[in-house]
Amino acid sequence: MPDLARFDPWLDDSGPAALVIREPLTPVEGPDGVLFPATYAAAEDKTKFPGGYNIDPFPDGTNVCLVDSVGSQANRIEPIFAKPGYAELVPQVVIRAGEKAVNLLEAGHRAGDAIARCSGLRDQLQAAFKEVLRGNAEPLARIAPTSLVFGVWDSRDTQAKLPRLVASTVRAFNVKKLTRSAQFVPAVEYVEQNLLPEPPDTKTRDAYAERGFVHVPASGSHGGVIATGGVRRDATLSLAALRLLAVRDANGKVSEDDTRKLRRYVLGLALTALTAPQSAYLRQGCNLVPDPDRPREFKLVHADGRREDVALSHDDARAFAKAAAQAFGVGEGRTVEFDKGLAERDVKGEAADEPTAVKPGGRGRGRGRGRSAEGS
User: What integer pLDDT is reported at residue 222 of this predicted model?
Assistant: First the structure.
């Protein structure tokens, strides 16, 4: 049994500020390989951002390119808690919506997502968010503890907001932007062979192109980047923010013992997320692995700025998380139904403070850990 008090100095008010990982990465093709960052839609004012790669230039000629955002990284890491060996650490909450079953771990806005707000979870989540507003994080930790780890904002209802404790981002430095061109050639000259009539107008011509019946050139599209300054994943666990979590009684008094259990539990989940093995594949053309020539840094950053090396493996983090979860008491897993009527009222702004009746089958079905059959 791991020592539950092992990390208690990190949870004290005078504890360190954060844990930080800086991990150099490289394309599988090599340091000079082409990688494809994420692309983003243009801003309303295209003079501010025309769309495409998010590359920030600086006056000295250097630049930084966002390869994978903090939100995208969170969405890649969080579903680990639905996998064998991790699922017992958090309640497995599944929402059935039509023919699809969605694990709350896959919902983009976590406990604040529309699919949760308009389901049999609504009343419990609303009550939990109201407790967050008065400084009590325990009810939300019983339903959706990863919302405490990766952050949540109940922006459509109570406005309760919790910061990310674990934030991870992948950036490339001093990139050279490339373009690519292509030419689609149909298997047969459909119009010339009289297999299709000559398109009479632009709309029909565009339809031919969309369906693959004519030649289609594609010139000057995004062709990836070469990161001459390297690629790096930066991940942070804010211990200072974690220490803001507390358990309070009905009179607002902090329960020291229960708060300690809560913080240990959330720390265990956060350490598990922070140290989790990263997928090398981010998207087509972006396959990144640790750079063997540049070692990873794992530091404990103190409030006075001091930095010290940390030797904590993922297995150690997970073992501590299991012990802390057992001591805290993991919330009950359940399967609930999405409520179409509630969603319709929610769209109209009519459902915010309206109590909901739990439909048959809307409560938890034992302690089973149902999972989504499909990814988000």
Answer: 87
Q: Based on the domain organization, do 100 and 205 belong to the same domain?
A: no
Distance CA 362, CA 354 (A): 17
Measured distance CA(167)–CA(19) in Å, rounded? 11
What is residue 48's predicted lDDT score, i.e. its pLDDT? 87
**Cβ pair 180, 223 in contact under 8 A:** yes
User: Does residue 20 share a domain with residue 116?
Assistant: yes
How many domains are there within the chain? 2
Q: Are 273 and 166 in contact (CB under 8 A)?
A: yes
Based on C-alpha coordinates, what's the Rg of the chain? 25
Predicted pLDDT of residue 220:
76
- DSSP for 124-169, please give it: HHHHHHHHHHTT--HHHHHH-THHHHH-EE-TTTT--EE--SEEEE
| Domain of 112, in residue numbers | 8-27+80-170+235-347
Which is nearest to 228 in space by CA: 48, 359, 33?
33
- Cα 238 from Cα 15, distance rounded (Å): 11
Averaged over successive runs of 10 residues, the pLDDT of the chain (376 residues) comes to: 90 95 97 95 89 95 97 95 96 95 92 93 94 96 97 92 97 95 92 94 94 89 94 98 96 95 98 95 95 95 96 96 97 94 86 51 35 32
The three-state secondary structure class of 29 is coil
